[in-house]
Every structure is written in C-alpha cells, then in structure tokens.
Amino acid sequence: MTRASGPDTHSPDTHSPDTHSPDTHSPDTHPVKGNDTIMPETMRAAVLHAPGDIRVERLPVPEPGPREALVRVAACGVCGSDISRMLRPEVAYNLPLVCGHEFSGHVVALGSELAASGTVRAGDLVAVPPLIPCRRCGPCTQGRYSLCEDYDYFGSRRPGAYAEYVAVPEDNLLVLPADLDPRAAAMLDPAAIALHAIWRTKLRAGHRVAVVGAGPIGLFAIQWALLQGASEVLSIDVSEEKAAMALEAGATRTATTPEQARELAGPGFDVIVESAGVPATADQAVSLAARHGQAVFIGIPHDPVVLPKSTFSAFLRREITLHGAWNSFSAPFPGDEWRLAAQAMADGRLRWKFMITHELDLDDLGDTIRKLGERSMFSSKVLFLPNGDRP
Fold it and tell me: CA–CA separation, 97 vs 156, rounded Å?
C-alpha cells in the first residue's frame, strides 16, 4: 500500500494469487458491514471467452488473501491495449479472462494481515497500479519495475476490473484523498504513462515539443510538457475533434495532416512524444526532430515499422536520440509518476474531465469494444462504471 501524499515504505513481500471462491468470506477476511448487509457471494463481470466473444456473467466475488483488499470498482477505463486484446487473435491468453486495468474503487474488505497492519481502512478510495512486479529479477532489484521480467498484470495475466469487485495486493493500493473523483483516479494510469515517457527525455524549460496522437495519453503528455516549461506544444492528430480536445488540454497549435505538421516544425522540435502507435506516425516523429532532438515512443504498433531512407538519414545527420517508454513504474513502487499524477489531479494542475466521452454500464462493454475496434464511434476516454457509481 502507498499513499499519494507520501513515500512507499512497504517491503516487497510476495502476495497470494487472485482466486475466486463461491463460498462466503473466510474468518481471515474482514468485510465491511453497513445497513445490515454483508458482501454478496457473486458479482457481474464482462468475461472474454474468445476474440470478440465477450459475455456479462455472474462470477464468485474474489476472496482477498491475507495481504490483499477487496475493492469495489468505481470506474474502469478502456485502454487501447484492451481493444486489441479482446478482438485480435493470439493477443489474449489465459482465457476466459476478465480484462480492464485502468481502475479505481473503494476498499470493502481486508485480508487478515492487512487488516491487522492498519495501513488501509474500510472505505478508502484507491487507484490500482496494474503491474505486480516479481521484485526478484534484475530490473526489479534496481527499482526499474516497468522492466520486470516476470510480472503479473491486472486484466491480462490475472482478472481485471471489468467487474464489480477485484482482489488487490497491498502494494498495489494507492490510497487517495477521499474527495478526489473516482473517475479521475481511474485515469491515473494514462497520466502516469505520459509522465514516465516525458521523463525518458531531457525536456527542459523553453523546449519546443510535439505530441503525436491526441488520445488520453497524448492529452496528458501535452499538459505535462507545459507543466515542465515547454515554450510550445504542437498536437498532431488526424481527427479534428481530437485536435479541439488538444487545444483544451493546452496545446499551442494543432496539425491534422503531415504537411501541416512539417510546416509548423520549422527547424524541428526538441522533444517529440509518439503516442499513436502507427507506423506512419513513428516515421513522422523521427522526421520532425530538431538537431540533437529526442523522440520518445509510447504507442504500440501492430504492423511492421519501417523508417524510409530519408528519415533514417535525418536520424543520423541530426544526431537524434530515440527512446522507448514502457508502462509507468519506478521506485519506490508504483513510482513518482503515480504519486505526482495523483497530486496534480487533486490540486487541479492536470485536467481530465474534458477527456471523458462515455460513461457506460458493463452490459455495454461488448458492443462498445467492437465499435472501438471498427472505429465506428468517436471516443477519447471511455469509462465503465461496473457498480453504477455515477457522480
């Protein structure tokens, strides 16, 4: 467990697995009682059985292990990786699977050891960093948790949050101020990913920045760049609607075509953040860099990325630096990326509400994922509210 306002001081203990049991909660679990009710034995969850085969079913409420908490999910956001995982063959494994990893909720039951520790309380609002590092591999021992070689992960390797309840290990409970909107808490993952990518570069005050892709990660990257002193931020996205959202995020200029971006680049940008994950935009990110510029890549392409000879020549001649960015975690876990993002959400430096285009029930999940895969609906941040917790 860690709190957004302070350092993570908990040791890297191992955690018991997320299990499902049809029985009522054991004596080692401390459910939160209120209004003469106790925890239900079953819950609704959207279960992926095969690519495109998504069914809302009733499953047993998970039983938290000794150092776990049961979290009642308030909101779970759709990540682009969810779309490919739920629709494309050979992406998801461990089927059937409950996906969803960008989530927040409230603690409703505590495992015996966690209850005795007093570090987490019933009713606490938490965000859940989705990576569960092994804490044994080389990168983990160096505090580079994003690079863990044997990690677990909500929504892909263990049941995720397109469900009413999730069992969460102690170290993945980021306790937040009670007055923070749970929807904002569910958006900490893309905010932290954007900051992790920015920190992979040497962005300084006065730098010119371009952000390729104006989805939620790109919109947060625009804001982080400005907060770190960028003198100019160009947003590049083919969508006019997303260009408008980029302006709301604070972008100084927008471009919806490669020609517009090239014209506005002038001598090039000091830092380029690529968040679209498309081969053409990877090429574009490199080509827009200034001499000694830096490009950092967040987007995950599903097709081969080929840099034309002219782009590769520019990379060499301008001595451009290319960075990869993976996940959002550092030491102490989950990392300052998460803690700073939580603080910036709470104090209003990071704006998030304008990104939300949909707030939906679990029953809408299958149809929504299909539409997102077909690109037949406009969206930015799509949130599912499994328990119907609307503000």
Answer: 7
In sequence order, the β-bridge partners of residue 29 are 111
Q: Is-contact 84 91, C-beta < 8 A?
A: yes
Tell me the backbone φ, ψ of residue 13, rounded to 5 degrees: -70, 155
- The predicted-structure confidence for 270-279, as pLDDT tens digits, reads as follows 999 999 999 9
Gap between the Cα atoms of 234 and 285, Å rounded: 12
CA distance 279 to 276: 9
- CA atoms of 178 and 123, how far apart (whole Å): 9
According to the model, what pLDDT value does residue 30 have?
Answer: 55
Contact predicate 73/363, CB 8 Å = no
- Rounded to whole angstroms, the Cα distance separating 259 from 110 reads 56
Per-residue H/E/C for the chain: CEECCCCCCCCCCCCCCCEECCCCCCCCEEECCECCECCCCEEEEEEEEECCEEEEEEEECEECCCCEEEEEEEEEECCHHHHHHHHCCCCCCCCCEECCCEEEEEEEEEEHHHHHHCCCCCCCEEECCCEECCCCCHHHHCCCHHHCCCCEEECCCECCCCECEEEEEHHHCEECCCCCCHHHHCCHHHHHHHHHHHHCCCCCCCCEEEEECCCHHHHHHHHHHHHCCCCEEEEECCCHHHHHHHHHHCCCEEECCHHHHHHHHCCCEEEEEECCCCHHHHHHHHHCEEEEEEEEECCCCCCCCCCCHHHHHHHHHCCCEEEECCCCCCCCCCCHHHHHHHHHHHHCCCCCHHHEEEEECHHHHHHHHHHHHHCCCCCCEEEECCCCCCC
Whole-number Å distance between alpha carbons of 173 and 120: 8
Threshold 0.90, pTM exceeds: yes
The owner of tokens 């990540």 is 79
CA angle, residues 349, 352, 357, in degrees to nearest 5: 165
Taking the C-alpha atoms of residue 311 and residue 166, their distance in angstroms, rounded to an integer, is 46
Q: Copy the structure tokens of residue 260.
A: 């517009």
Interval 173-220: pLDDT, tens = 999 999 999 999 999 999 999 999 999 999 999 999 999 999 999 999
